[in-house]
Amino acid sequence: MVISKKILAEWKKLRSHGDGKRIAEKNPNINDMDVSRAFKLGRCSDEVFTAIAKYYNTKASKMAGVLK
Q1: Are 19 and 7 in contact (CB under 8 A)?
Q2: Does pLDDT of 68 surpass 70?
Q3: Start-to-end C-alpha separation, the chain
Q4: Cα separation, 7 vs 26, whole angstroms
Q5: What's the pLDDT at 67?
Q6: Per-residue model confidence as pLDDT tens digits over 21-67
Q7: In the prediction, which pLDDT does 63 show?
Q8: What pLDDT score was predicted for residue 66?
Q9: Secondary structure in 3-state letters for 1-68
Q10: Alpha carbon 7 to chain centroid distance?
Q11: Contacts of 20 by beta carbon, 8 Å cutoff, 6+ apart
Q12: Domain residue spans in the chain?
């Protein structure tokens, strides 16, 4: 699947060192290179997309709570 530029830009704002490893640890069928490729190429499998989306949605919610 192709990741929209808007979504990719939002993920990049939230991205920090070690995120790929943390996403992979929570999803046994995904490795950190899958996450890196998604950012680099702007495309990935549906499974990788879902894992990344869940991770960054959670991270964004946590950050929003801290900023309030």
Answers
A1: no
A2: no
A3: 35
A4: 21
A5: 64
A6: 999 999 999 999 999 999 999 999 999 999 999 999 999 999 887 76
A7: 86
A8: 72
A9: CECCHHHHHHHHHHCCCCHHHHHHHHCCCCCHHHHHHHHHHCECCHHHHHHHHHHHHHHHHHHHHHHC
A10: 10
A11: 32, 33, 35, 36
A12: 5-67
The token duo for 16 is: 């920090």
Assigned token pair, 38: 């998604």
Mean pLDDT of 3-31: 96
Token look-up 């990788």 returns 48
Instruction: Look up residue 68 and give its amino acid.
Output: K
- Write out the two tokens for 33: 């290179």
59 burial level (CB within 10 Å; 0-12, 13-18, 19+): middle
**Phi/psi of residue 4, nearest 5 degrees:** -60, 150
